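Supplementary Data S3. Sequence and structure tokens for construct A.
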Amino acid sequence: MIEKIDIEDLKEIALKAGEAIMQIYNKDFSVDYKDDKSPLTEADLKSNEIICTNLQKLYPNIPIMSEENKQVSYDTRKDWEYYFCVDPIDGTKEFIKKNGEFTVNIALIHKNTPVLGVVYAPALKELYSAKQGDGAYLSIVNSQLSIVESKKLPYIKEDKSTINVVASKSHLSEETQEFIDNLALNTEHLTLVSKGSSLKLCMVATGQADIYPRLAPTMEWDTAAADAIVRESGKMTYQFHSKFNIENPKVEKPVVYNKADLLNPWFVVK
């Protein structure tokens, strides 16, 4: 199935959604709140409409799970071999603050593993993409929505003398801070950068960050697309637990998708 998916189609859809988002971003807009108190804007709904309509047109036989759609019961989706996992805007809080750190996210999941991902940051004009076996890339987009430059990930070499940590801008939990403090005790040089949305996973994929700990709640659609990019860049998103092996995380279990409960476990991207 994955060989039948043209990643250029998904990039095009993400760019279209991003264009619509920016039209709303650049004017005054209202904010509503969902039952879980998370914010919702006109841009979330418009982006979702564009993504879902275009995916259904191109790939009518592949189900779609989106944050902004009614959720399908586990009894139905547990039998899905492939499905699209969509977050029309990850980082709605950053969108509302107008700091540019929000993304459009489209992933293809095979059983419980993200095998293709597109992440577009429309305010930053950065388009991240990956397809299993084909590598991960960062493309720069111009004002006409054409790709002007692409780099294979990771493009920054690891500096063993410094640990670069990226953490959430709007959701830094006490547990995450404690994890970072413990890292600092065991390294001579540690830098900490705060970033919004799925861009944090993308920073590990590029090599800009060595580690992204998230010891706080996220949903599968928050991470799926960027997780595909992380994995194809040679990194991994690991499930965190109290005895997590930071020195050798490869002994740990990867995060999995299409669970009965769509809440992610705490995780560490490294």
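Construct B, processed identically:
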Amino acid sequence: MTKLVLSLDGGGVRGAASARFLERLEQRLERPLNDAFDLFAGTSTGAIIAGALGVLGMSAAEISPLYSIENIQRIMDKSPWDRAAGLIQAGPKYDGVGKRRTLERYFGNKTLGEARKRTLIVTYDVERRESAVLKSHHPEHRTLRAVDVIDASSAAPLYFPTVRVDGRWLIDGGVVANNPTLCAYAEAVHCFPNEPIRIVSVGTGKRTRKIVGEASRGWGAVGWITHDLLGVVMDETVVEYQAQTLLGAGNYIRVNSDLDEASDVNDDLDETSSGNLAALKRLGDAWFERFGAQALALINAGAIPNA
């Protein structure tokens, strides 16, 4: 029997576009995504959505409000000291308190082991210098609090502090797998041996900010950081190629586009204006118009129509 996997990229506030696409997809599917998929995988903002689906069993319609302007501005809130320090601050851009409180409101004391469907969250262990892929169905991970794991997966370097989880210091899994599709595929093959695997992979928009190659020759640490080094590190295009090659068009669909395909979208991870959030939701609508029929066909195990 075919097993279905939903993979969700990192991308900060741009997860609003992913959430909107999923809301439209669920409306047309006419059943909860939690019923349709067998495994949810996410990194960073994708970990929030994957956790809401897989651990809490929320509908896509319930998840979209997670990206309300009130929640986003609470998550991207600075302490009074941070505001006073301004550009001279040496620590993370945000203190993480608002993010933590927002996640606690939704996930409470739920553990990964209480997940309604298999859920995989990607993080990175800074002391061991290795990825830490945490799974609801793994015996050693079942007792971990979902809020701790998701807080760690969304702790993007430069933006949020490192998070301690079960004795390990973890950060955003986007530094190694911003697109967790291959992590999800490897786990699906392990969990469902000899079963066909199909994957819907949802991005958060591709950055199109220009990097001038010749100018980059002279950049040091400050130059690269101010010219989107984190965005370069978290680029997911190689995973798209690998997943397409391994799975084939009939078993895999990538939902994503350049951010400039929708007007007024800001590519920053933390642009919290109401205008930007509205633009991101419009981008999610545009993705459904472009990819919705193909995604529905894949979920329903039908032939994927030509794009």
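Confidence is low (pLDDT under 50) at residues 302-307. The first helix runs from residue 15 to 29.
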